[in-house]
């Protein structure tokens, strides 16, 4: 039995593996600036968020047709299944496609085609969260959201991503107000590279229910008190933090400190094709680095379930499965361990 997981911080465009990228380039006759897979992979040496985003936006130029978005999403879901993912709330960046001439409806329909097969084919329930690029004008985000609402295109929530510093959440208050008025769920990247003040703004001005990354909240005790008190989830992405140099090495990752502080943290892969692994790889690496053990792995899985936008009944069913997994782990470890850890 695999630990049942929920993934809440996953950019579908960030699951574009080099092999699929080259296949789509050939299919769509797109000329790539990289001569080989090796040459492309050699670019995956990022100095900060912006250096990653430059490559991320460039690479997704191979996504042109509806079926390309379906193939991309299916590839992620198939891999997520092997990781034990049972529910995924997936980010999608409309402006990364509309800005290069791919119609919103084409891209979204392609993603949806895959999501509609997800429960039957991979046993993964899904939700779709449209993320707006904060380094583009808020008016553009507002226009796209209005188009989605007017067209009755089914989405579950909105988020905020891309270059963070100098693009504070307060710029997007109107966008989030409109989304809230239409019953959409609200999340935002904050406190990845940006200061704790951006996390405060995301909470108090945008009214987000969940903070993506939020790792720099650790610099502000009053903010930590607030996050703990209100059980605001932080979707933490350890491989991303290392690759984008938010922290130096995995050994420096504050995940244990965050757990011990009582924060509602869960583990996610962010852009797994670029950062060295999927959600299971992130968890395995943390377990190896910090000796988390079954109890803290189960806690992280439970946190993800609580942080999700699943119904209470679906949350309870998945949480039961986590307890079953934990019991099998304790059994496998033998009676001495079972007594010690109980
Ligand atoms: N941060 C901000 N924007 C992003 C990311 C990220 O980690 N991945 C894709 N867009
Ligand atoms: Zn992200």
Automatic annotation (TrEMBL):
Its cofactor is Zn(2+). Residues 4-325 form the Adenosine deaminase domain. Belongs to the metallo-dependent hydrolases superfamily. Adenosine and AMP deaminases family. Adenine deaminase type 2 subfamily. Keywords: Hydrolase, Metal-binding, Nucleotide metabolism, Zinc. GO terms for molecular function: hydrolase activity. It comes from the Bacteria. Catalyzes the hydrolytic deamination of adenine to hypoxanthine. Plays an important role in the purine salvage pathway and in nitrogen catabolism. This is Adenine deaminase. The record marks 213 as: Important for catalytic activity. It comes from Cryobacterium breve.
């Amino acid at each position: 039995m695999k630990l049942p997981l929920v993934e809440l911080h996953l950019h579908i465009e960030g699951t574009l593996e080099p092999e699929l990228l080259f296949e789509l380039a050939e299919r769509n006759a797109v000329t790539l600036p990289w001569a080989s897979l090796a040459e492309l992979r050699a670019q995956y040496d990022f100095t900060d968020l912006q250096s990653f985003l430059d490559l991320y936006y460039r690479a997704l130029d191979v996504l042109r047709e509806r079926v390309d978005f379906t193939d991309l999403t299916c590839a992620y879901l198939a891999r997520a299944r092997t990781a034990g993912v049972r529910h995924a709330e997936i980010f999608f960046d409309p402006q990364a496609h509309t800005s290069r001439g791919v119609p919103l409806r084409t891209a979204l329909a392609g993603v949806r085609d895959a999501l509609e097969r997800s429960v039957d084919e991979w046993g993964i329930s899904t939700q779709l969260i449209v993320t707006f690029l904060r380094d583009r004008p808020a008016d553009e985000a507002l226009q796209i959201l209005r188009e989605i609402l007017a067209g009755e295109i089914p989405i579950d929530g909105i988020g905020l991503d891309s270059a963070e510093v100098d693009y504070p959440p307060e710029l997007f208050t109107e966008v989030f107000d409109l989304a809230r008025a239409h019953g959409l769920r609200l999340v935002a990247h904050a406190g990845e590279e940006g200061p704790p003040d951006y996390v405060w703004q995301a909470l108090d001005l945008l009214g987000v229910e969940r903070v993506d990354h939020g790792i720099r909240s650790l610099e502000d005790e009053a903010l930590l008190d607030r996050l703990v008190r209100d059980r605001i989830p932080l979707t933490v992405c350890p491989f991303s933090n290392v690759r984008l140099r938010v922290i130096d090495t995995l050994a420096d990752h504050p995940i244990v400190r965050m757990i011990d502080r009582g924060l509602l943290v869960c583990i996610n892969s962010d852009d797994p094709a670029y950062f060295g692994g999927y959600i299971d790889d992130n968890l395995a690496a943390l377990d190896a680095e910090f000796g988390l053990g079954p109890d803290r792995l189960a806690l992280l899985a439970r946190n993800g379930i609580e942080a999700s936008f699943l119904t209470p009944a679906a949350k309870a069913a998945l949480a039961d499965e986590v307890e079953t997994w934990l019991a099998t782990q304790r059994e496998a470890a033998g009676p001495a361990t079972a007594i010690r850890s109980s």
